[in-house]
Every structure is written in structure tokens, then in C-alpha cells.
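B., you asked whether I could sanity-check this one before it goes into the benchmark set. Here's the sequence:
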Amino acid sequence: MAASLSRMAGSPLKGRPARTHDHSSTHGFADGLRYQDKLLALYEHALGLTTARTLDEIVSYTLDAMEYALAFDFAYVGIVQNDLITIISARGTIPRVTHLPLNGRGITVKAATSKKTVNVSDTRLDTAYVDQMGFDWEETPTMLSELAVPTIVDDNVVAVLNVESQDPNAFDGEDEILLEMLSVLVSTHLKRIRNLQALQISENRFKTLVDHLPVGVYETDINGRILEGNPTLATILGYKDASKLTSLNLSTFFRNRLSRGDHLSKLAIGVADTAEFELLPNDGRPIWVREDTIALQGADGRIKYHGTLLDITEKKLLREQLQRYSKQLETLVAQKTSSLRESQERLAAIIHASPESITVTDLDGTIIDCNQATVEMHGFASRDELVGKNIRLLIAEKDHEIAIVNTMRTLEEGVIKEIGYTCVTRAGREFPAEYSISVVRDAKGDPTAFVAVTKDLTEHIKLDNRLRKAERLAVIGETATMVAHDLRNPLQGLTGAAFLLKEKLQQSQDQDVDEAFALIDNCIQYSNKIVGDLLDYAREPQLELGKTTLRAIVAAALFQIALPPEVELTNHVSDEPALLVDKTRMQRVVINLVRNAIEAMPNGGRIIVVGRRDAQNAELTVSDTGPGIPEELKQRIWKPLNTTKAKGIGLGLAICKRFVEAHGGRIEALNERGKGATFKILLPINGPSHED
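And here's what the prediction gave me:
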């Protein structure tokens, strides 16, 4: 059957077919053949793929098989690479279009991108068709049928086999099967060639690497005859030409053959061993080599030795010299070590006995040592919890960047003193501290470590604040005493005089006189309030604590305030919780806040008083619907003698803050410009803790 098909196709069974026909059309080869004959023709002409070693050969044999198994007017093989299909060989005509972008048109492109066979029975009806006359061809297609099959290797399309015909409906299901079978064969042999090429590249790289290795590489039989060796091996053995190695026996170059024989006898199959030997090369100069050898069984079943020789002559001489030096150094080191140990012990004793925090770090900031004062200052249990950690663990994150800058300064200047940082304890509590850092250098003057001495400034700052506060209060107290002394006597006189005048003029029905007396009374009360505020702010509050509720405090305060008719006040304060406070002073706080709210709304508005609680604190808020606090004044409202009112000297909020903080609480202003201000007070339910 094969012979008859060969004669019918005009080609021998083996090797490349000898064609004498016209390639302009191939209808004559496959027309009229049965499917079995086409299949046999395809496999007969695809036999060449098994011997192909290049891409060009595979393409040529592939087109031969297509030509003798399928009837077409035009066929080609397109290779997929770099987002293009490149037509590298064709039969039937010379194509003008040789490159098809994968993101463009074309039946071949559709087969490549879909990874499926595409059979177009009439190209006039398919917009994807690209005529070989060019992308811009608008006349009747030169080919009316087209069949394209993708060639897939490892799930990637690497090529497309394409046949076209001038007739519509030229390719049926059998043609699809034949071309798909050919595609599978092409895929197999493309992958084989790719693997062969990769193996060849790998072998070439390995040989190049071995040839340039600075160690001698060899393969010998069990008798020592050299089977292969690299140029470095030839150099070690005293030869210039590596081609002479295969005529030599490696064993003959070893001075102590018995010792090397013991070395080789230890080698079982797959076991390696290393030893040092004295070698006598061809040039007569003795050298020392380190030999690494492994025994392997070859494909022929025979044992072979594979190994390397490294010239260690200079290294061995240096090793012997170092051994002599090391003995001399041992004595010196022992003496220096004893002296150094004594110095270290004295230094360690000084560091650990110091009441100030001392920390030693390497140049990267890793803690090498620290004393007990450091451990206690930062709330750790022992020194072991800090050694090996970075010193940034002891500094608040917000100061890490400045710490890095100061480290560079210390390296440049040698020492920096009294640098302020915010430090942290193990529990996360921040506290102010002061660092003095110096560089430790070795005998060459190179920096090796940092030593940091740390002072906790918490108590210092507290004392300083207390002193400043005391000085400020002393000044205010002196001023208040002077004002009280200078004003209260005249005020008492005015009060008495006003009383006598009222008595004498009580029978008068003059309305102007009554209004004048009312004005005098208001002025005297206002003056007394100013004197009282000064004295309240100047004196340290002496609280008279008692059980009460926020509701009782607010009710008593509101009773003392004349609420204008245009101001609405809403009270959302309950009887819970009961808390321990100085009721009189907290009433003063509420009175001041409500009066401030009234004065902030001259045209009327709404005041809301709200009380809340949690497990530890009671909360009271006083909100108004006034214009709010200007942003530029928000930071100054708590300072004494700061006011924007036509009347008053600016002590109201300062006294509120003083009274609230005396209870261990806090007060803050929450402001939304144009929508009013809210003052929030937090008070501990169980009273002040008496802690600073």
C-alpha cells in the first residue's frame, strides 16, 4: 500500500520527497484519494519530522505532508513569536502578507488566539479574513476557503498550519482531522528540537564553565587513566596542552601513592571524599593539592572516578606560618585577656552601680548592655529583656527620626549632651528624658559603639511647673490682696452710704431715684465679684467634699441665674450618679458656663445641659447655639486675664478650669464655628485621687 501510494504521489517512502511537479497548485496530488490514502500519504511524508534537527527542516517536511495529503491552492506555516504570526514558508504562491499581529484580523490569528481549528467555507462572509494580496485588498478574495489549525506546545500556540483554496467549501471534516493530526506531530517534534537545543546550550555552557574553572577537573578509570580533563588540570600536572591528558595516568603524579590508594579505597559508588596530597608535576616542582573525588557507575556499568584538584601550595605554607604565629599570639592574648577582663569587670561594676540610666549599643542601635537603672526607668523586669533589642524600643515613635539625626551628629562630633527625647516604658507610658551620648572608638579610632546616659525629667518638669505655678499665683495673690484692700473699703463705704440714702429717700416716689439706687447696687455687686474672682483664682482651692449629684449642682446653679426671656434652657441631667465633690465650687463652674453661654447669644438662642456617666467618671456638657469660639482665641480661653467682653477681666473660665482640675477632673471646649460652643466637664465619681 505504501509503495503504491508513493508511486501515486510521485515521492519515495523515505527521506525528503523528490518533487518534479509545479507547486503553483496542489489540487492534483490529493484530489480523488480516499481518506485512508490521504492519511497514509500524510504519515509517509511526515516521517522526515523524526530526523529533523532544525526549525526549517520541520517546516519543510510539514509542507510536504500537507501537499500530499490535502488539496489546496495555497498553504503555509506561520510561527507565533513576539505577538506576531510570521509566515516563514509557503506553497502555491508567494504571499505579500508575511506578518499577522495577534491582536489583529486573520483566520490564522483566530486559530492562534482561540487555540482551536478554524474552517471557513466562504471567506467572503468572514470579516476576519485577510487576503494574501494585502490587508487593504477590497476586491473578490483570491481564496474562498481557508482551514487553519494551531500547533500547541505546553499549552502555548507556537505555530499555525494553514491551507487555502480558490473554491468555496473546499475543506471538510476529514481535512480538519488530517491537518490536526499533522499539527500534533509537528508539536511533538518542535518540542523535541526545543529540548535538544536547550540541552545543547546547557552542555556548551557546562563545558565552558568547566574549561574556565580555576580547579583541575578530571574523569579516570579505576586504574587512574585520564579519560577527560580540563585545561587547569593540565596546568597543575605541568602540561600546556590539555589534549595530552588522555595519554596520562593520574596516579603516577602522586608522591605517596599508597596514601592516595587508601583515599580511593574509601569510595563506594556515590560516596565522595576529600584529602590533601603532595603532587610531582611534569616540570618537577612539588606542589600540594586538595583532591575531592567521587566514584560513579557509567552507562557501560564500569566504575569511574570523577574529581577535582585544587592547588593549595600557598595556602598550606600560609597555614603552617599561621600556626607558628598563633602559638606566639596565644601567650600575648592570654596576658591581654587577663588585663582586659579586669578592666571590663571594673567598668561593668561602675555601670551597674550608677544611679543614672546607662545604655551601651552597637553602631546599629542594638543594645549590648545596660544597667539596672535603665531597666527600672523603662519598666522592664530584667536586663535580659533589653539586650539584643534596638534602643528605639525605649524612645517614643514620634522621636525616632530625630534620634537617627542625633546618631549621625554623635558620629561626627564624638559626643552630644542633654538632648531632649520623649521616652516610653514597656507599658507604653511616655515620659520626658534627657540623653547624653558619646562614641566608643577602637585603637584605630574607628567607632565601635555608643554609650548613652539618660535622665528621667518627669519629676524635674513637675517641680519646675509647680515653681512656675507658685510664682504666678504669688503674683496674682499679691495683686488680688492689693485690689481687695484698695477696693473693699471704698465699696463698704459706698454700700453704707447707699443704705442711708435709701432710708432717707424711701418716702420718695421718684422712679429715677429708684433706678439710680439699683444701678449703684449692681455696680457694687459687680465690683465685689471681681474682687472675689481674683481671690478665688489666687488661693489654692480647699475643697469641702460631700456627696451630691450633677442634677442637684445644676439645679442650685440655675436658681441663681436670671435667664433672659429670649434664651431657652433645656436640662437633661438626671439624679445619677452620686459623686463626691465640693458642691459650692462646682455650682460656680456651672454658673460661669451658663452665663458665658447667655452672653454669647445677645439675640437669644438655646442652652442645653446634659449629664452622663461611665464606670469611673461623671460627664457634664453645657452647649449653646451662639457663634462659637474664634479659632484664634481657642488656645487662650483658659488663660487668666484673657477676655473679649466689654465687661469682665477674664477670670471666669480660668477659675472653672482651676476648680475642675482641683477635683481631679478636666474641662475642654468643643467648638464648631457658627454653630455654637460646647464645654465638657469630666469628674471622677469617687472624688480627687490627691495625686499630682
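One thing to flag: The chain has 17 helices and 23 strands. Otherwise nothing jumped out at me.
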